[in-house]
Amino acid sequence: MTQIFAPSETAHLGAKGWLDPLSVFEAKSRPAKWCRLAAEQGQAIGQYNLGVMYAKGEGVPKDFVLAHMWLNLAASQMPLAEFRDKARKARNVVELQMTQEQIAEAQRLAREWRPKPAAQKAKSLVGSRLDNP
Which of 30, 40, 75, 90 could pair covalently with 21 via S-S, beta carbons 3.0-4.6 A apart? Predict the structure, then answer.
């Protein structure tokens, strides 16, 4: 069952009162390995959290290609339109910092990505970029 975080965990507002798309669903207390396991199993919230972690370099090396890939996957799978829009906004923020080649690579990785069964060991289908958290 996918858990939607409590409003207190998702209502991060910036200084001007705008919602920071890179803070929604952010769960700093959750280690990257748990976000990765959820993301690799196809859970949109885990994909979003992992994308944010890669975008910010928190718990994993900063990697805009992987951030874009995970945020793109999250945006395509979020069950509620409001959350899909937030994932898209976060992806678009990351995209502003990327070259066209990086965007193309992230899109290719997202197209090729497939969820892993919960019992399968974490061996990435998209290459060594994911093997180095």
Answer: 90
- Out of 1-10, 17-26, 31-40, pick the least confident: 1-10
Which residues lie below 8 Å from residue 44, measured CB to CB, with a gap of 6+? Answer: 2, 73, 74, 77, 78, 79, 83, 87
Q: Is 19 helix (H, G, I), strand (E, B) or coil?
A: strand
Question: Does residue 27 fall inside a structural domain?
Answer: yes
pTM: 0.68
* Closest residue by Cα to residue 34 from 21, 18, 47: 47
- For residues 43 and 38, give the distance between their C-alpha atoms in angstroms, rounded to a whole number: 5
Sign of CA dihedral 108, 114, 118, 119: negative
d(CA 30, CA 75): 20
**DSSP secondary structure letter of residue 61:** -
Domain assignment present for residue 87? The answer is: yes
